[in-house]
Amino acid sequence: MVTLAIDSSNKAMAIGLVDGNEIKGELALNVQQNHSIQLMPAIQYLMKASHVTPKDVTAIAVAQGPGSYTGLRIGVTVAKTMAWDLNIPLYGVSSLKVLAANITCFDGVIVSLLDARRNAVYIGAYRRSDVSAPLETVIEDTYLPMEELVAQLKALDEPVIVVGSHADILLYKTQFEEALSQCVFVEATDGIPSGARLALLSQFEEAQEPHTFVPSYIRMTEAETNWRKAQGLD
Q1: 103-191 placed in CATH 3.30.420.200
Q2: In what residue span(s) does the Gcp-like domain sit (predicted)?
Q3: Which one of 56, 80, 140, 207 is most buried, by most CB atoms within 10 A?
């Protein structure tokens, strides 16, 4: 079973090809570029380099969110289109879980975060006792002000490792260190999503219907929030 995985949910873009549990190839770009321009050429390059044709692909996995609204729409649209055209299963995986999968073993809580601005973050928290074990969810993907997040983590009273982009970790590192006595941070290389790990994580998910599959934004855009207020819906 050859799975093509796509993650364009944030600044770093990752794709991967996995055959069962064998990684055939993966590619990551961590540059501020338009994913709509780079994604399809990157997929074509990786498939050609891995000697995989579209007919060989038996499943599509995509980072479902949270993340950049534009990036998510691009990746999900490409994934849905390919799954429909090839008539193969489509699997969605949390973008935060993809980051957490970079931590293969840690005796404590793995906290994946993405900056949501205004001193708030998108976060998911997990445990993983063994490299072969699936990630166990501790805190479901959500949007939290930083003060609420550190309060919840403090109440758990466990060691914490924070996973995220280098920029996001720098933004919130001081707040974590001041609130938590047992807190460490990943190296910059572990803050970039892995397309191969995304493909492997999809094996634990249920297939989705391409026509009805949508990104998981978690929180509405500011424009959507303002529109709802203007319409008296909130």
Answers
A1: yes
A2: 31-227
A3: 80
Give the domain ranges of the chain: 2-96+193-223, 103-191
Running along the chain, 234 residues long, what does each successive block of 10 average in pLDDT? 97 96 96 87 98 97 96 97 98 98 93 96 92 88 96 96 96 97 94 97 96 88 47 49
Both tokens of residue 191? 């803050």
Report the predicted TM-score, pTM, of the whole model to 2 decimal places. Answer: 0.90
Strand 106-117, strand 160-163: pairing:
parallel
Which backbone phi and psi does 149 adopt, to 5 degrees? -60, -50
Neighbours of 78 (CB within 10 A): 21
Asked if 67 and 187 count as a contact pair (C-beta separation under 8 A), the reply is: no
